[in-house]
Amino acid sequence: RKLFAEEDAVSSSPSSSLSTASRRIMSMAARVGEPWISGWSKGEFKDFLMDCGYRVLSDTGAEDYNETYLKSIGRSLDDQDLFCMERFVVAEAI
User: Fold this and answer.
1) CA distance 66 to 72
2) pTM, 2 dp
3) Whose CA is closest to 36, among 1, 77, 79, 82?
4) How many CB atoms lie within 10 A of CB 87?
5) What's the rounded Cα separation, in Å, for the pair 47 and 41?
6) Is the Cα dihedral 68, 73, 78, 83 positive or negative?
7) How far is CA 79 from the centre of its chain?
8) What angle do CA 14, 4, 51 make, to 5 degrees?
């Protein structure tokens, strides 16, 4: 199991599309002397796993949770939720 942050979260000049949650967690890490130094785009992470001998079965993020699980009960994760910056990838060895 791997967790990864979107590539833009760790660029030298993050764009305005970077979520508030991502900015908050990066700031907290920097305050304790642990700057966030790695990030992957969704496609890059898939390619990385393929290079390591894995096939991605699913790649899930907050937008998926909102649509699949929360919309039907009238809830959603918003930009302030730290969970929004995470993606969960399930892969199998090939």
Assistant:
1) 9
2) 0.60
3) 82
4) 19
5) 10
6) negative
7) 13
8) 115
**pLDDT tens across 10-52, in order?**
554 545 556 677 778 778 888 998 877 777 778 888 999 999 9
How far apart CA 9 and CA 13 sit, in angstroms, is 9
CA dihedral 66, 91, 35, 37 (to 10 degrees): -120
The alpha carbon dihedral of 8, 60, 48, 26 has a sign of positive
Amino acid at 43: G
Cite the beta strand spans of 29-93 per DSSP E: 54-61, 87-93
d(CA 81, CA 22): 9
The number of residues making up the chain comes to 94
